[in-house]
Structures are given as structure tokens and as C-alpha cells.
């Protein structure tokens, strides 16, 4: 992070960014020409300009203009591949052209009631006033397309050079208008690795409670984007130090009070950030939200289970069970999907299972159960367990990694022999009903579960052996079976 003021980005960098944007998206020139012919100015604005200057332009393009919404519609209808008007009440017309998603929004000069997030929509007449109402200076730059003129009235170029996140207006004004911008600040810190300006941190801290005005769905979206950023720990630290986390993910600051059982970190919170980093290092196909949530939250059950032992020790018995329940509760409140809730809570529930492996004492039956309980989450569980090793004792860390290597080798061997990915009883439901002469019902399900447990304990059985075991079990249940 910069400790002193960096040189401003040169005019040539700005010009190159504009040229690159126009090269990758020639539709902008066509669109600008249509607006110019009608006597209007069209500006490429916000994120696309920022990202082009960072060398990472994309396909989604945002524009602003002095043309009013109905005028915009008349200019784009015959040109675009598709047009939608869902945001027209807020001055935004959406369109698709040659594979690009475009949004054109009339200059805005809104005022907010500062109770909800709902603005009183008013249209403006200048690009400078429009940029002033935007969230951060790095998003308050524009390119006037007909003249290829760069517009940067609030120092966004210098902020990019310094890697500093600041607001065009005062942070207090900006966040009072829209408290979601405080979460967006943490998200941009995570995505870009920028440092928030001191006045931004001060405003976030004093106004943290305002985030309760924001709907849960919007909060969840920002948290997910933050977690999937390149530097999520920076964003998380900002949420915790400003007090925002206490309102949106209170389990995080609660972990700062706990000392973890190995005493290798200041507290469980810091340990969890290290685990998150180590889990991310193992990702293979880009950010994995489920793995990252599990890594961050795997120890949230520790505060509720902490016990001080004789001799000065600390224990957290069954914190994985308590933690899994807490994860389900928190993620439900954040309106995550059922699939994400189920997967993250199951990873938290299973993350300690490996520590019963010892020096390889598990039977093949225990290995089968480990694989079966993890199911499609096995690859993520491998990553989480490895990431959870944060001891500073290199010898102990190497031993744990070697032991897990051995477990994975056993899993691979047994999987090759028995197709563990599809562990099923040796007799299916139809055959159970035929052999026991029973209709569909609870007894069939119980028999199926018994045979699956038997399969996990003993591996594949010969057909006759499986039938004999089924009959023996049925007799114990009081079910008449053929002699």
C-alpha cells in the first residue's frame, strides 16, 4: 500500500485507456455519433473508465448523458439489438448491442430522504454535478466520447495512482445518502487492494449503524463480492475495525475475544483470516464463495463453547457442531440460497473430523464414512482441512500435511476399488421389497439405511451375504422373512 503520494497518471495513460475502450467496444463510437447528431453529449462513465485505466476493460459499459430518458429511447430503439426500460423511472435505459451490455442514464442530481435508500429522482444538466453524486472518486471519471475528452473533476486519476479510496463529496454526505456505499468501500478495498482515506474510515466508523437501513439482499450481494475479491482479508478487516461487521456479520468481531487452543495466533479471528488466505491459495478455478465462507466461519462456534481447563488450558468441545448451526442461522438471515447454506454448514460441521485420524488409525470403514459424509464437498473439505493448519511449528505442520496426504491416498485407493462416489447398499429398494415381501414404506427405508451402513463398514458384499444380513436384520425388527 502506498505510504506517500504517487505521481499522477500521465495524460498518455488516460489517452491509452480511452483508445483501448474504443478499440474493444467500437459500439461506443456509433452510439456517441447518434447522440451528437441529435445535439446531445454522451459520456462513458464510472467502472468501465476505472477498469480501463487499470488495464482490465470488460463488456459491460455505463454511459451518462444530458438527453432525457424518452430522448434516449428514441435514439437507441432502431439501433440496439434489444432495449429494456426497467430502470427508466430512475433515468436508465438498458440495451444490448453486438454482445455488449450497455446502460445509458440521464445526468442525475438526486436528493435522498436519508431514512430509506430511495432517492427523489431529479435530472441534472452537467457532468460535474452527476459525477459529484457518485460513490467514490475512482468511479467519478468520465470520457466525453465525441471529443474523446477525459473528465476528472474530483481527482479520480490521482486516487488510482495512489491506490486510495475516497469520495467526491464528503463521506458523511455520501454515506448518509446511501449507507450501502460503506459496504461498497470494503468491497472495493477487497477487489482493488486500495487503502480507504482516513476520512472514509472515520465516517464508516461513526455511521456504521446506518447500514441497518439497507435490505438484507443488498448486504448479502456486497458481502459475497467482497469475499470473492483478490484481497478479502483487507475488506473484512475494514468491516470489523469500523464496526460494520457487528451489524452485518456479528460472529466475526465476536471471535476477536477468543484465544485459539493452539495459542499460535492472537485470537480465533486472526486464525480465521489466515485459514481464509490459505484456502484461497488452493483454489483452482477462480474464487469459490462456498469455500471462502466456510474458511472464514469455520470456528464461529468457539466463543459459545469456550471452556477454561485446569492448568490454564482452553477447550472448545463440539464447536464444529455449534458452529454449523450458527452458520445456518446467519446465512439464512442473509438470505443465501439453500444450496450455499447447506454446503457451508456441512463443511463447518466436518472440518474437525480429520483430527480423529491420528497417525492413520482409521479403519477403511471410517475412511468410507468420511468420503460419504462429505459427498460432493470432498474436494472443498480437503482444501479447508489443509488450510486449517496454521501452526508456526514447522515440524508439526509438515506432519499434519503428510498425514493428510496419506488419508487422501487411502481415499483414492479405496475409491478406485469400490467407487466411493456412488456408495449404495448392495441391495436396492425394489429388491428389499421383493425379498421381504413388503410394500413401500418406513421398513424399506430402514432396511436400506442398515444395508448402506453395512456397506460402509465392510465394503462390498456378495449378493447372498447381503441377503442373509438383510434377513437377519428383518427378524430382529419382527418382520417375517422366508425360511
From TrEMBL:
Coiled coil stretches, renumbered: 390-424
Keyword Coiled coil: yes
Record lineage: Bacteria, Bacillati, Actinomycetota, Actinomycetes, Pseudonocardiales
tRNA nucleotidyltransferase/poly(A) polymerase RNA and SrmB- binding domain boundaries: 193-254
Domain (HD): residue spans on this chain: 268-365
Organism: Kutzneria chonburiensis
Name of this protein: CCA tRNA nucleotidyltransferase
The Poly A polymerase head domain, residue ranges: 42-165
Database matches in InterPro entries: Bact_CCA-adding_enz_type3_sf (IPR050264), HD/PDEase_dom (IPR003607), HD_domain (IPR006674), HDIG_dom (IPR006675), NT_sf (IPR043519), PolA_pol_head_dom (IPR002646), PolyA_RNA-bd (IPR032828), tRNA_adenylyltransferase (IPR014065)
Annotated NCBIfam families: HDIG, tRNA_CCA_actino
Amino acid at each position: 500500500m502506498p505510504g506517500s503520494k504517487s505521481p499522477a497518471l500521465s495524460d498518455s495513460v488516460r489517452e491509452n485507456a480511452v483508445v483501448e475502450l474504443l478499440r474493444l467496444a467500437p459500439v461506443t463510437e456509433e452510439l456517441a455519433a447518434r447522440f451528437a447528431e441529435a445535439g446531445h453529449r454522451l459520456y462513458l462513465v464510472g467502472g468501465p473508465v476505472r477498469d480501463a485505466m487499470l488495464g482490465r476493460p470488460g463488456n459491460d459499459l455505463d454511459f451518462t448523458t444530458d438527453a432525457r430518458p424518452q430522448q434516449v429511447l428514441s435514439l437507441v430503439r432502431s439501433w440496439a439489438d434489444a432495449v429494456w426500460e426497467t430502470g427508466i423511472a430512475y433515468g436508465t435505459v438498458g440495451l444490448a448491442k453486438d454482445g455488449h451490455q450497455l446502460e445509458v442514464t440521464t445526468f442525475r442530481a438526486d436528493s435522498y430522504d436519508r431514512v430509506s435508500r430511495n432517492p427523489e429522482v431529479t435530472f441534472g444538466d452537467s457532468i460535474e454535478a452527476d459525477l459529484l453524486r457518485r460513490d467514490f472518486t475512482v468511479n467519478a471519471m468520465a470520457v466525453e466520447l465525441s471529443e474523446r475528452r477525459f473528465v476528472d473533476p474530483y481527482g479520480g486519476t490521482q486516487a488510482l495512482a495512489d491506490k486510495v479510496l475516497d469520495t467526491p463529496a464528503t463521506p458523511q454526505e455520501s454515506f448518509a445518502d446511501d449507507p450501502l456505499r460503506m459496504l461498497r468501500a470494503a468491497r472495493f478495498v477487497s477487489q482493488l487492494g486500495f487503502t480507504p482515506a482516513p476520512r472514509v474510515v472515520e465516517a464508516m466508523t461513526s455511521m456504521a449503524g446506518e447500514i441497518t437501513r439497507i435490505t438484507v439482499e443488498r448486504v448479502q450481494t456486497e458481502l459475497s463480492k467482497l469475499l470473492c475479491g483478490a484481497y478479502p482479508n483487507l475488506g473484512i478487516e475494514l468491516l470489523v475495525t469500523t464496526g460494520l461487521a457487528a451489524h452485518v456479520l456479528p460472529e466475526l468481531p465476536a471471535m476477536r475475544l477468543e484465544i485459539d487452543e493452539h495459542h499460535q495466533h492472537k485470537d480465533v479471528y486472526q486464525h480465521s483470516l489466515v485459514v481464509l488466505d490459505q484456502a484461497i491459495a488452493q483454489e483452482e478455478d477462480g474464487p469459490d464463495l462456498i469455500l471462502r465462507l466456510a474458511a472464514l466461519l469455520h470456528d464461529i462456534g468457539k466463543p459459545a463453547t469456550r471452556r477454561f481447563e485446569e492448568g490454564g488450558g482452553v477447550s472448545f468441545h463440539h464447536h464444529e457442531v455449534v458452529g454449523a448451526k450458527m452458520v445456518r442461522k446467519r446465512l439464512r438471515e442473509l438470505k443465501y440460497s439453500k444450496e450455499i447454506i447447506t454446503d457451508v454448514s456441512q463443511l463447518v460441521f466436518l472440518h474437525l473430523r480429520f483430527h480423529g485420524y491420528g497417525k492413520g488409525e482409521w479403519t477403511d470403514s471410517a475412511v468410507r464414512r468420511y468420503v460419504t459424509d462429505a459427498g460432493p464437498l470432498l474436494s472443498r473439505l480437503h482444501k479447508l482441512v489443509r488450510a486449517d493448519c496454521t501452526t508456526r511449528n514447522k515440524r508439526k505442520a509438515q506432519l499434519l500435511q503428510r498425514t493428510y496426504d496419506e488419508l487422501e491416498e487411502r481415499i483414492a485407493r479405496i475409491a478406485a476399488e469400490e467407487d466411493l462416489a456412488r456408495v449404495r447398499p448392495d441391495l436396492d429398494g425394489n429388491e428389499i421389497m421383493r425379498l421381504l415381501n413388503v410394500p413401500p414404506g418406513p421398513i424399506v427405508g430402514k432396511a436400506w439405511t442398515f444395508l448402506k451402513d453395512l456397506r460402509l463398514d465392510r465394503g462390498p458384499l456378495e449378493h447372498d451375504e447381503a441377503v442373509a444380513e438383510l434377513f437377519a436384520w428383518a427378524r430382529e425388527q419382527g418382520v417375517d422373512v422366508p425360511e
